Amino acid sequence: MMDLSLESVQRARPKRRNRRPSYGRWAPQAARKHRLRISEEDGSGRMTHPSPLRNLQEQAEAEFIVYGRRDPAAHGQPPQPEIEIVSTYGEIEAEYASMRRSAGLMDLPQRATLRLRGADRVEFLNRLLTNELKGLSPGRAVDAFWLNRKGRIEADLTVIELGDETLLSVDATIAAQTAASLSGFHFSEDVAIENVTNQFHGLSLHGPRAVEFLRTIVEERDASALADLTPGRALRCTAHGHPLVVHRADQVGEVGLHLLCRADDALAVHEQLLEAGLGQGLRTVGWLAYNSARIEGGTPLFLIDFASDSLPHETGLLNRRVSFTKGCYVGQEVVARMQHLGHPARMLVGLKIEGEFMPVTGSQVINPADQVAEVIGAVTSATPSPMLGRTIIAFAMVKYALAKAGTEVVVNAEGRRARAIVHDLRFWPREAPGR
Questions:
Q1: Bridge partners of 65?
Q2: For residues 56 and 25, is the Cβ–Cβ distance under 8 A?
Q3: Helix boundaries (H) for 92-159
Q4: Do 352 and 423 contact (CB within 8 A), yes or no?
């Protein structure tokens, strides 16, 4: 799985003299040198997947990290596109605070879009994906897993129905193989599947004022519809002549709006949103601030917190991704058998960790009651939580027997063993955010 933790970004940075460890800005020339170094070390010949906002981000002296597995072949995966994302614009704390107090605007080159057209497209997807899509009406956005025949997760998707076409939002590193694997089940149905990632680009707005800022740039008839947009809903709208598809998914414990626009329009839409929030707390945010907020908000991510060797029951997302009342789909027999006859060997859980030392991705989780210090799992993501007084929180995949909330475990953190308590995935807020 990917390691995009705060610690891994620190390790990837070029060393700088006479500076205390920080997340301050650094020159675009250094960023370009860093990118070349990564590409040379990688040596896989992967294609780059640049953001249309790249030049703007370099002018802002943003820092970048590579998104994706560094060695996909070791995990039985084909070569993946090299995708660089902004780690920070230089002020992580301010970026994070914008998502809690106002809104944070995030670039999403790591997301890809597949488009399905044809009269049978929804029925076709309903026979393949884990969630109920029968009768899916325009304006719905449904999360679902795409499984293989062994019940393992091939992709974590958002299905967005627009009436004349259906869009699938998917991790960009697996977009091509997802399109190919879905196409492998296409026979005589009236369905056309197209990878349109290069034609479109994604942005997201996270925070209590996200709807307010977006409403100021869309046409008046769209502004009222945005005010009523609830989680799991989507709509088409227009911002100063630029068509958008917007769906709501609250990933950080605040309102979350996910925007899809034409790639050629991305820079203009980005600038319009920044102007709408000028002087009102809106900021551009990078991965590190978002990562802290999404862990607090209880949002595990595919290929980071669970992967292609995971079963739906292990992810903590079962109730959000799987229907047990729908008809057959690929991998259903495995999912149904586990639901009715057993339980998974492991589960993704939250951890509240005592002390100031933070584990990294892969840090061992240990059973404190075992005399030989049995390893029961590993950390997948970790962060200090600003909303919990800088308490260290984490996601970890652990053995099912110790996955119950309130269970005490031990975590290896910075060469020390720290006490931790198993927690629900969501740390903040306790209740889902309002409109």
A1: 85
A2: no
A3: 92-101, 121-126
A4: yes
In the prediction, which pLDDT does 397 show? 98
- Check: CB of residue 259 under 8 Å from CB of residue 253: no
Q: What's the chain's length in residues?
A: 435
DSSP 306: B
* Residue type for position 83: I
Helix, strand, coil % (nearest 5) of the chain?
30, 30, 40
Task: Give me the pLDDT at residue 31, please.
Answer: 30
How many Cβ atoms are within 10 Å of 104's Cβ, its own excluded? 30
Helix (H) or strand (E) holding 245: strand 242-248
- Residue 424 CB coordination number (10 Å): 11
Whole-number Å distance between alpha carbons of 33 and 48? 16
Cβ neighbours, 10 Å, residue 361 = 20
- pLDDT tens, 11-49? 444 333 222 222 222 222 223 323 322 222 333 334 456
Dump pLDDT digits (tens) for 88-107. Answer: 999 999 999 999 999 999 99
* Residue listed under structure tokens 């945010």: 285
- Whole-angstrom CA distances from 204 to 88, 112, 166, 276 are 15, 13, 20, 15
Token output for 133: 């899509």
Determine contact, residues 9/62, Cβ cutoff 8 Å. no
Residue type, position 328, single letter: C
* Residue 199 DSSP label: G
**C-alpha to C-alpha distance for 1 and 315, rounded to whole angstroms:** 14
User: 186 phi and psi, to 5 degrees?
Assistant: -90, 120
* Residues 6 or more apart whose Cβ sits within 8 Å of residue 130: 144, 145, 146, 147, 312, 321, 322, 323, 329, 331, 332, 335
Predicted TM-score of the model (pTM): 0.89
Residue 133's φ and ψ, nearest 5 degrees, are -120, -5
* pLDDT tier, 71 (very low <50, low <70, confident <90, very high otherwise): low
Peptide bond between residue 208 and the one before it cis (omega within 30 degrees of 0): no
Q: Under DSSP, is residue 174 helix (H, G, I), strand (E, B) or coil?
A: helix
- pLDDT value for 48: 56
pLDDT digits (tens, 9 = 90+) for 344-358: 999 999 999 999 999
Q: Is-contact 322 146, C-beta < 8 A?
A: no
